[in-house]
Design brief:
alpha/beta, Rossmann fold, 5-stranded antiparallel beta sheet, 13 strands
């Protein structure tokens, strides 16, 4: 947008709120006449009565740019829009403004983009990295193609990555989500397949803001795999009939898991339209996820999921020692006792945003 072009732009939604944020650019005298105020000095903020309608804080960013924060009621907003429009200043959408339009105090395009991105960063670790980017771009130049994979991973600090918890019914997916969230968001039950719809929550895992999805359990043949050692453990575990635990995290021995390992059916065991729709949705979420948690209870086989970024996790590790708790690249957790949840969060973060990416002093092609 032309630097001399007048405009007004709401940076807050039209929904009712305590405070609204209005960005305006026009010649100083036009601003004074339109709002019926005197302007504060550049870099200062003062309380003013605007358009004889409301008291608002007016921050003068540059000679011709101000930010106004009136109360956020919808009726007041309508009256301000009418008064400003009647004065000849047009309203534009925030999507029509570039970072340089919004952050006129910036001295370079990279600095403007940094400030724009900083305002929407979801994870706190993005702050120091973003603030360092103008200097790194000036020192090293723009990122090269070799920086692209690292830049893509670091952008997960800006927009929360999606983490899908996937596994068979009764793997403990909903219990894990609730434990990570610290409250009940998904229904848990010893009855397999209780969750037939999707439940998601925004959760910070080891400092990384994530969208965590509890996917419905699936029981299709090709979604399972097993090796000989796991099969032996399953058979041994199937003989255990008593468990000292009686809470809803409990998963009793499941002979059907042995059956699926030996001779799984060739079609969906769950025939209902609801189950089939849930399985289809699970596939969609898994396909688009940044990370898939392949979750399995002690008496279950690993879900065979096709994805480039998978973390295997054994749930309910407090229930039995029959199945080895650490098998290759896997973790063991108990959502009931909290055992392993800290390590789980750290592992999720490490796979999504490795420490080496944050430690790098190379420029970042931030989002």
């Amino acid at each position: 947008m032309n630097l001399d072009q007048e405009f007004a732009c709401w940076l807050t939604t039209a929904a009712s709120g305590a405070v609204g944020v209005l960005h305006m650019r026009a010649q100083p005298q036009r601003l004074c006449t339109t709002l019926s105020i005197t302007l504060p000095d550049i870099g200062r903020a003062s309380l003013r009565r605007i358009c004889n309608l409301d008291e608002a804080l007016v921050l003068r960013v540059t000679d011709n740019t101000i930010i106004v924060t009136p109360h956020g009621g919808p009726r007041l907003r309508q009256r301000l829009v009418r008064a400003i429009s009647d004065a000849g200043i047009s309203f534009v959408s925030p999507t029509e403004l570039s970072p340089a339009d919004l952050f006129v105090e910036s001295t370079t395009n990279i600095q403007a983009r940094m400030l724009y991105t900083l305002a929407r960063a979801a994870s706190a670790d993005a702050i120091a990295l973003l603030l360092a980017q103008p200097e790194r771009w000036e020192k090293n130049g723009a990122p090269t193609p070799a920086d692209a994979p690292r830049s893509k991973r670091l952008c997960r600090l800006i927009d929360p990555p999606t983490v899908v918890i996937a596994g068979a019914p009764n793997a403990g997916k909903s219990t894990l989500l609730n434990a990570l969230l610290g409250r009940t968001a998904a229904v848990t039950s010893p009855i397999a397949g209780t969750t037939r719809d999707f439940v998601s929550a925004n959760i910070v895992l080891a400092g990384l803001a994530c969208r965590v999805v509890d996917a419905p359990g699936f029981i299709e043949k090709k979604l399972f795999e097993i090796n000989v050692s796991e099969k032996n453990s399953l058979e041994k575990n199937s003989l255990e009939k008593n468990s000292p635990h009686t809470d809803l995290n409990q998963t009793n021995s499941n002979p059907s898991a042995i059956q699926s390992a030996n001779q799984a059916p060739s079609s969906l065991q769950a025939q209902s339209a609801i189950d089939q729709a849930a399985i289809a949705r699970a596939r969609q979420e898994i396909h688009s996820a940044d990370l898939v948690i392949a979750l399995a209870a002690p008496d279950q086989v690993w879900p065979a999921i096709e994805h480039s970024n998978i973390l295997r996790v054994r749930s309910m590790c407090d229930l039995s020692t029959a199945v080895p708790m650490l098998t290759g690249n896997s973790l063991c957790i108990s959502a009931r006792t909290g055992a392993g949840l800290i390590e789980f969060a750290q592992a999720v973060r490490a796979q999504l945003v490795p420490a080496a990416d944050i430690a790098s002093d190379r420029p970042w092609q931030f989002c």
